[in-house]
Every structure is written in C-alpha cells, then in structure tokens.
Amino acid sequence: MTLVRYEPLFQRNPWAGLARMQQQMNRLFDNLSDGDETLATWAPRVSVVDLDDHFEVTAELPGMKQEDVKVELHNNVLSISGEKKDELEKQERNVYLCERSFGTFRRTFQLPSQLDPNKISAEFKHGVLTVSLPKVEEAKPKQIDIKVS
Predict the structure, then answer these.
(1) Same structural domain for residues 51 and 87?
(2) Disulfide engineering: 55 pairs with which of 35, 47, 117, 133, CB 3.0-4.6 Å?
(3) Residues 87 and 128 in one domain
(4) Whether 17 and 58 share a structural domain
C-alpha cells in the first residue's frame, strides 16, 4: 500500500474553493427559480448614460409590448416596471426546456442632477425602451473661459 500525502485543494489552487462555491451558489439559485416562482425574478438589462444635456436610459425588453411597460419619474428617481407574460402557459404543449424569463419586474434609478420633467420622452422600438431625460439649464456643464493677464 502506498501512502499519499493529503494536500488540501486550496493549497494547490487558491481559487478552486471560490469556483466550487460559485457552482454551488448557481445550483442553489437555479433550484429556486425552478421551484417557487415567487422567488424567481428577472430584470431587463439596462444602460444609463450621462450625456452633456440629458441622461439616456435604455432597457432591453424583448417580446414585450408597449402597453405592458410603465415609466415614472418621482424626485429624480426613474422607475421602469412591467410584466412579461408567459406564452407557454396558454399553449397545451409538452415543454422540454424553457430558459426564457417571465413575470413582473421593476427597475429604479436615482439620477444625480435636476431634470426637466416637461421634456422627458420615451420611445419603444424593436423591444428596446429608450428614455431621454433632459437636464435643466442649471445642471448642464458650462465652459468657463480662462483669461490671460
């Protein structure tokens, strides 16, 4: 019989423990989303861009209709909410795999400067929501000329 010295995994590869923990966490969340639908959530991917004269918020909402999305602004907090309906529930089919997400969502964003609420616009095109939030004149950056003396 040959004796083999025991060497803990983390001494050979310090990152192996983290990778194993990530796999276990992924498995835990996969199980949660498969079982109780109240624990499973989805959130659309969003970009918030600060341009010179306005903010632009873009949200990916594939498969949704304009009437299923609500956009609100209150005290410089932008809220995008809605519901993506499950089309597979209506059909009587044997579904073998479904990786699409369904249900309600709500994304909120605290915007850092004063906005002009009368000029806010939103456009929904090809499953992408674009919200333009113009800044008030005082919040726009101003160029200051430097004089040489």
Answers:
(1) yes
(2) 133
(3) yes
(4) no
Distance CA(32)–CA(38), nearest Å, equals 9
**Vertex 91: Cα angle to 86 and 96 (nearest 5):** 80
The overall pTM is greater than 0.90: no
Q: Tell whether 7 is covered by a domain.
A: yes
Q: List pLDDT tens digits, range 93-143.
A: 777 777 777 889 999 999 877 888 889 999 999 999 999 999 887 756 777
